[in-house]
Amino acid sequence: MDWGEVNADPLVADLPPSDLTETVTRTTVIANESTRAALAVNQLTPPPIISPVVESSGLMSRTWVLWFQQLYRNRIGGAIAQDTSYLEVEDSFVSQSRRPDTSQADALAMFGADSDGVKGWVKAQSYQPQPPNSITKEITGFASPESVIVTYDSTTRKITLTGTVTAYFQGVLVNHSLVSGWVSSAHDSATDHIYFLYYNGSAFFWGTDVYPGFDVLMIATVFYRAVNKFALRECHGMMPWQVHQELHLNIGTYRRSGGDISGTTIGSTTAAQRRPDISACVIADEDLLTTNPALASKLYSQRYIVGTNVITYSLAAADIVPLSVNNPYYNSYSAPNWGQTLMPANSVQSIWLFEVPVTADAGSQEIRHVFVQGQWITQATGAGVPAMAKALADELLRISSELYLGNIGLISNEYVAIKRIVIQYVGGNWSIAGEYALLGSRYTQISAPSSNFISSVYANAPITGTGVVSDPLVIAAATTSVPGYLTSADWNTFSRIQSVYAFASLPAGATGMRAFVNNNSSSAAFGSAANGSGSTTYPVFHDGTSWKVG
What we know:
The longest helix has 23 residues, at 62-84. α2 (62-84) runs antiparallel to α3. This protein has eight helices and 35 strands.
């Protein structure tokens, strides 16, 4: 059929079942003369005839709703109507798209918009309802996630949404109460819990500690502790929930741009030169972009574990690592407790800079850039440059996935490490030994190596070990009975042995000689000859058969 043709007669189209999903087997579309004129004049796109008209929820599918919405706007006032009547038209469509009787097999879904003689409706015949809890791939999410401003008030325990907050749940527009300025109910007041704000198709809810699943419209996650209360943005874009689940589990958060460190000097023990500035950083929690503003205050947020499993933040700290005067601490573990241990002399430690997609409120913004304290040190054999360089190289073999970040479950994929700052403690003071960018997504940073990586190592004597951090490959020094490496002491002993020996001249008829070793400073009998005499010396060599004097 020609959807752009202008004709005064009613247009009736019987669509064969092959053009529809199993939900609708026969659809009749009727439009009067004014509708047909609108199609031609405004170049309206053809209706989505390959999409079901009515979903199992009893609502007209979003694709058909949008088509009639476009028809309505174009006919009434063109582009002006599209701008001025958006919310009014949206509400009108949603309120009139519900199926009257969900129990009838032959169901009717009707939309009507009557203005200036424009009418349009859709009739779905032979409706086949889907089984309860059947999988639906209708989109869920916010229409413009980057334009949603999420703010958390830790005093009222509520979330506020401003900006462009239009959202859909399984293809259906979330009711008209979700507008800019929307405020949630308060979550529970119990501390030391994680609260999840979401919409499940009928109402908004706060979940506690357990992630509500990917088949809901997520809005925000709140970490509500006795201190350090903050929230994360979760206003993802529109996608089937199965896609969101796969993106979360297999990608997680990653850095898009920015997050550069400046203002530091490698090797300097001057306090001001080990306090970095951080440029604005754009991170993506799957599809959701968050821009963390730059940090130039020289005040830092530190993160570490205390006790058996208590995540702790130290805010507005003067340095990136906890200190005792000029001696840094590392976050040590001695089962079952985590604690603080001073770095020993001639050691190095990694400090990890994480980016977090926090909400816009001041309290949450304090941890947008957070420095996670190292949980181990690498000890050097001395304070010399070669020894410290070797310790630094060994430290860089450790990776961020070895960090224990607390019992946070699925939320671990919501933030990402972007920088590694290695510090060293030498001569009673500390400095930055190196700064390194970290690549990849949060998932790749915490995943165990597989595929083309070595999975195990087998060692033969004199080499021992399995090649892991806790059991490295080693070789012991050789002894009189056990093979191994040559020690420096043994090497010095061998190096004193001269390659050419001198012997005294032999008188006529002599049958032997005496060898002089170490520049003729000592002598030893050679063969069965009698003592020799004279001042001339001769080299002794072996021709492959016997020793000879040359």
